[in-house]
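pipeline stage [seq->struct] | target=2',5'-phosphodiesterase 12 | organism=Circaetus pectoralis | residues=588
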Amino acid sequence: MWRRLRSALGRLRGSPGAGRLPAGRGAMERAVVRCVPSEPKLSLRFVLPDGSARHMQRDQAEPLGRALARIATNAAKGHAKAAKKSKKARAEGGPAGEAAAAAAPAVRLFSRDGEAVAEEVPNAAAWQDGAVLQIGEARYRVERNPPALTELQLPRSLLAGFPVCPKVSAEFSAPQHCLFRWYREQRPAAGGEAAGDGGPAWVEAAAERVFTPSNALVGLRLKLRCTPGDGAQRYGPPREVESGGPVEAGPGACTFDSRHLYTKKVCGEGSLRAVSYNILADAYAQTEFSRTVLYPYCAPYALELDYRQNLLKKELAGYSADLICLQEVDKAVFVDSLAPALDAFGLEGLFRIKEKQHEGLATFYRRDKFGLLSQHDVAFSEALRSDSLHRELCDKLAKYPLVQEKVLQRSSVLQVSVLQSTTDPSRKICVANTHLYWHPKGGNIRLIQIAVALSHIKHVACDLYPSIPIIFCGDFNSTPSSGTYTFINSGGIAEDHEDWVSNGEEERCNMPLSHPFKLLSACGEPAYTNYVGGFHGCLDYIFIDRNALEVEQVIPLPSHEEVTTHQALPSVSHPSDHIALICDLKWK
């Protein structure tokens, strides 16, 4: 079989001058090659002269000659089918014509400089961008790994005045190199209908990655046309997507609008803006208990995920932050909404899901200020069970089996990322993010969790990267009067602190704890960072290393009047039951 296939190529190979590409006329077709080092096969797509599309999978290590022989065989089969149809047409009285021979056409591959590529060259090396594939008289320009869109989506909910951030996934391309064209529906003339063939007429509205529709577009649908690019002036085939519904009216003034006045610009060199925010997981907002007991004052549509995401993306983008630590982030929200949206504003995202949960933690950092050196995420329960760092604490905890069991059942995690300045490589920072156990009587559990967290952070910031400063953000579910806050702020907690018996005598566990850091709550102790119908208090903090960092400014929280406009949080003008903490920091 292989001998017969090789002979099919013999005529051109043996002909005079076959070592160079003969001069040709006219435009060439495309032969698209996808070749990824991590995969054993490459794919080849092209359309034969008879109009039939071919998609071939070949081993990357296979000699080129075998691939060309297979192409010759496929071309011969296509030619034979065309001849058979022609013969049938003549028999039925169709136009006369010569029956085409079913012989395999000559097939060669030429490099960009016109030299024939040797048959023994492996496929992976042979099929280079700009090469020319010749099948008989037909010629194809090889496009190796051209930019290609794999996914293009628009949010389900569009609000006037709120940014529309598409989800763009591509191969051999990046969203920042793609071309974006936004279109709006043509509004029908009074008493008339939209023009044309029954479909909507579209008018170009913008040429940018993120589009914010104006109030004038309420009631109209949007369309996006995206052309993938690779930053080297290569572009792939475009794709279009239309919104599922029209642009709707926005809620008017939001609680974060006045805060954006302080954060119009990104911080300058030597400073950074940090945000910590529990964004309220959809898993907790969309329950009957949430709608009827926790947030009965909130309009049901304002608890819907799509609505809240519109508010959240506008809020976060408007803070122009360098670091954002989020809690209660649904995995799907991170992948489909937040990561694509914040990527468009220059932020790279990291996600850590809680154990046995659908939500977790997300840390975003500004790409042109920081690069990621390493990640050191950990689940508290797993760390206690298996990490020798916590053996002493684990031994102490073993004396209190009821408490130990509760601690090990919790799904809480700690996200730790070490970042390095892009402009000053000697400047590194350890960014930690967590969400501690929520129960009001769980002070003793939180003390154990924070002890594990600080011990783990010490290992990263003192052992692995000696003396780098830390920023520790999160929802600590602890008020300033709690043992957890006292422990973080002062560096120690006494064994007789009242939080050790926070859930009664049967769950008492007394142990002194300490840590080596000098930490400061950068935003102080606000009256509240969580405001719901039955509770308000300060639970969220941005702790900073007071030896290395200082506070430049704290962005004021919304006024009490703004927070309570719709009774409590969340509301039609605020997407969460928590309030974001924002501060500008600088290295000392």
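stage status: PASS
auto-comment: The chain has three domains: 29-72+107-144, 148-189+200-242, 255-263+270-587. Confidence is low (pLDDT under 50) at residues 1-17, 94-101.
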